[in-house]
Design brief:
This protein is mainly beta. It has a single domain, classed as Beta-grasp domain (Ubiquitin-like (UB roll)). 10% of the residues lie in helices and 35% in strands. A five-stranded mixed beta sheet has the order 2-1-5-3-4, with no helix packed on it. The longest helix has 7 residues. The N and C termini lie far apart (54 Å). 7% of the residues are buried.
């Protein structure tokens, strides 16, 4: 059986270890984050949600995910 290589990323300031070549979509899906209610920043650039399935994460990527909260 092939051993999966792991990489470290930062997600909202916390170090996470994930499988190498994971996509941003897989990361968001694994953490059960509702994609329609968040804004995503990858290495200080806003991510177009239509592209998240194509974006492969690499070592030391910094991801910030901000949830939208309604109020009045």
């Amino acid at each position: 059986m092939k051993k999966l290589k792991k990489i470290k990323i930062k997600l909202n300031g916390k170090t996470k270890t994930i499988v190498e070549k994971s996509t941003l979509y897989e990361l968001i899906n694994n953490f059960k984050i509702p994609i329609t209610k968040v804004a995503i920043e990858l290495n200080k650039k806003i991510v177009n949600k239509k592209e998240i399935k194509k974006i492969k994460l690499t070592t030391n990527d910094k991801i910030e995910i901000v949830h939208f909260i309604g109020g009045g």
